[in-house]
């Protein structure tokens, strides 16, 4: 799993109206670093309890068929597009499902967070509340919930495919048990009117020998609260695959500070020539199988004809896109090739992108083309999943000895499964392309098509450059607007949403209720915060930029300052760097100069976060085209082992402790709980602004600047006055503002790793002279701003103050416990 089992989330939790009773359920919640919330409501609140009670009243009294003016965006719930389903028995007939949805007495709650371990923290709090007729469910992937050891052993290509295979062949006893136990709508034993997380569900599955994956989906049908990772809500393909209907639901997204990045990634894709060749092979294999099965039977050939045409249509599109990648920029004089040492790229935006997307632009992603391709993809997806659990049909008898699927139809299903890699990839591509054309192209300016040619790292100079096609969405509104429009209400919570107005602008959704809550601890006694921006020589400034990070003086100054701090900090000292490159540069320098040896004199060991745990700045990599849900961002084994050893070292000797070197935006900064002695001090080295050399970062900045200019033109502002009109006046974020917010949001997230509960205490050291200035301080989380010592201190000055703080803070906390 990704985070420590003792992790406390940064935010208050929402409680269902039917859970009220047995005292105030919010009283048991141990709050920590001042959470921030955005909600679609028009009342102002001052405390977490007031906020929660207000929303409870609104939800309990609201009509779920209409968004009330006191809670929500004030519009009628509109039915989304009707999904078409493929009936294998009718060889391609599309059928419309019923459009009516049941209207419950109160809205069902969808509660989402980044990972299952974060959800477990919320569920543990929920378990402290008495249940009155309330049921819940928690959704997870096959990989997270499979208990069939044979599937896990044979899953060379992933658990998903092996699971589908054994279910299709009726070789999974756990699935059979699920069908026998839950076929009539009964709940799984041990899940009625009680709280359980994904691990509890797996344990129940092992005890009852019922498949947890399919059981969770069935439990969702009558659940009042459904927990899930938030990509299940935000990814349109996962929502479709998991039958998640947002209409009329209350959506709560915890740890929401990254959802603008996630939303952009859900409407983006990347394609390489190798990837296209790989999936093209699966289509060839499917066509080959159909040819072998039909060459001796004209009747079978006729029945296969429609499916063959669908496969050929997808294959033709794959080859078209491959040729486009290989031949770009096609001699078009309007397209500029921008080159660097090891990379070149061409970019298509606005009218140039529209030309490329059309059939005459050679990419063949016109609206008509993608609609035709989508029809083929939908048919193949429906066929491939027609025996997936209890979706569609099954090859079993109808009870009277008559097979529901004959041999020819079974061959078609097998062919569709063989072609599944291509189908899933193209389903993702077509979904993104459809967003481009949505609403007659209103959102076209938010997309950019980029062909990048780069030399693989570590290869010889003679090695051939590789080409990749990237389709980037620069606006989170494309995805988030669907959630906001369909859901009954939306609540976002996190410790690092600041600035709230900028976050709302990026999502394109008005949030009429906002709450920036204070820290639960007594700040003047339990929080120490200071800017250490004066070098150990007593007069030079310490600041970390691209230029200064290449000077020995600055690297040595930071090293000496850390040695000084390590003498005054008991327990754990967690140091966050802006990037892995800078962290390793400092580490190597400090090894040469003896700084690491001096640190080990005061701390038992130095642990370093591995680079593999990093997450891209703007768009998290969505390389897997599969629509099967994944628990992205879960803590990898290597990081988990390092964190575990770090904690164990401190537990053995809490006074001396240990040091953890980590990176902002890495997994250590995002979700790991370092309570009590595990992080008595967090040091933030520099400001983790995104890399300006990242092409995607530059493109996003350019897009935001264009938004501001477009808004200024719309307001009739002359070109001469454009420079003096603030972006706030036109209600858009400029590229520089977006860029700055990304840096401070990552820093604030890392800062929140210490002081995790009401009896905790710790220090935050901002190691850069820029934090002595007013504006950088204003970008920090509200809970820390009033607690920062004035001016800039040297490390020696800070040490004397730190020592006194820790003595007093420990005594204060002990008095609270007594």
Would you give an account of this structure?
With 818 residues, the protein is α/β, with parallel strands linked by helices. Helix content is 43%, strand content 12%. The strands form four sheets. It has a seven-stranded mixed β-sheet. Helix 12 runs antiparallel to helix 13 (298-327), helix 15 (367-384) packs across helix 16 (407-418) and helix 21 (552-568) crosses helix 22 (580-593). The two termini are 35 Å apart.
Summarize the structure in short.
The chain has 29 helices and 21 strands.
SSE blueprint:
Elements: E1 36-39, H1 48-61, E2 85-87, E3 93-95, E4 109-113, H2 116-126, E5 136-138, H3 142-145, H4 149-154, H5 159-168, H6 173-182, H7 198-208, H8 212-220, E6 225-229, H9 231-234, H10 236-241, E7 250-253, H11 259-266, E8 269-272, H12 273-294, H13 298-327, E9 337-339, E10 343-349, H14 350-357, H15 367-384, H16 407-418, H17 420-441, E11 447-454, E12 466-473, H18 477-486, E13 489-494, H19 500-507, E14 513-516, H20 523-526, E15 527-534, H21 552-568, E16 573-577, H22 580-593, H23 595-602, E17 606-608, H24 637-652, E18 659-663, H25 667-671, E19 681-685, H26 695-714, H27 735-751, E20 762-767, H28 774-778, E21 793-794, H29 795-817
Parallel strand pairs: 4-6, 4-7, 5-6, 7-13, 15-20, 15-21, 16-18, 16-19, 17-18, 19-20
Antiparallel strand pairs: 1-13, 1-14, 2-3, 8-12, 9-10, 10-11, 11-12
